[in-house]
Amino acid sequence: MTVMIPFADGERHLDWLALTEALAAGHELPKAEVADVFLYEGENTLLNRSAWIAGMGLAVKCATIFPGNRAEGKAAIGGAVNLFSGRDGTLEAILDFALVTKWKTAGDSLLAATRLARPDSRKVLIVGAGTVAHSLVAAYGAGFPQAQFTIWNRSKEGAEAFSAQHPEVEVATDLETAVRDADIVACATMATAPLIKGAWLQPGQHIDLIGAYRPDMREVDDEALLRSRVFVDSRATTIDHIGELKIPIANGVIDENYVVADYYAIDQFVRRDPQDITLFKNGGGAHLDLMTSRYILSAWQAAQGDALIQG
């Protein structure tokens, strides 16, 4: 029987740190087979991501990304996630796209931050006041309970509206000053040209890059990469696909070996020195959608079992 998991019903059973443990455990299984298909029309994107992990199953995620929708008061991103059994290929669950995306995206970044950021990190700057920013407050708040949040957005009005929903988050008016003052910088924008300059980075910082997902998109400049120890969630879905790395590699600024590790070598996700600048590129591959979907389904099933026992 196929399970339908809507957003609210699924989310009430989830925990950010438990998700990071599930993601780490998923990378101990055989390496995922993944396939991405991108179709473009202007600034609009159709993204199909599929993953198959032996011992976990299969997932197919279809996303439409229409940035212009925001001007019409519509959601910029839509789609669906199908989760299949690896044993017989049956459709086990259809999960709310926004639920999987929210938890996968922020959980992906949180896993890296819990391994790479200084444990005493307190000041978290979020760059960009879109949908992802809301989940970053929740995720980083779980991983760094003493965190103090600041937000910067191209539109000051957008940052102020975000702060109105999250009164604990202060609004930054100058990006350079905010970056220099932060312990963790989480950037989730639709930028195609770098916003974060390497000259602004400070020893001991952790930089979390989420927004760029196309070959022509970047959020940091070359100097930021050269000053950092660089990590990715998956070499297969970032190096040749996302401008953050694809462009500087093509230009000879760095090569593929400059990337220290991805999650399939998660034991290398360590901070060698308190003064290191670490930089993580969150590419959000389909294998992470599969791992997150499996975690959501497991948590939902466990809650249903508890309800039956209590009943």
Description of the structure:
With 311 residues, the chain is an alpha/beta fold. The chain has two domains: 3-101 and 287-310, ornithine cyclodeaminase, domain 1; 105-285, Rossmann fold (3-Layer(aba) Sandwich), CATH 3.40.50.720. The chain has helices spanning 7-11, 16-26, 97-116, 131-143, 156-165, 175-181, 222-226, 235-238, 243-250, 286-310; strands at 3-5, 33-41, 44-53, 57-65, 77-84, 91-96, 123-127, 148-152, 170-171, 184-187, 206-209, 229-232, 259-261, 278-281. The strands form two sheets. It has an eight-stranded parallel sheet with strand order 9-8-7-10-11-14-12-13, sandwiched between helices. It has a six-stranded mixed sheet with strand order 1-6-5-4-3-2. Helix 4 links the parallel strand 7 (123-127) and strand 8 (148-152). Helix 3 (97-116) crosses helix 10. The chain is globular and about 55 Å long.
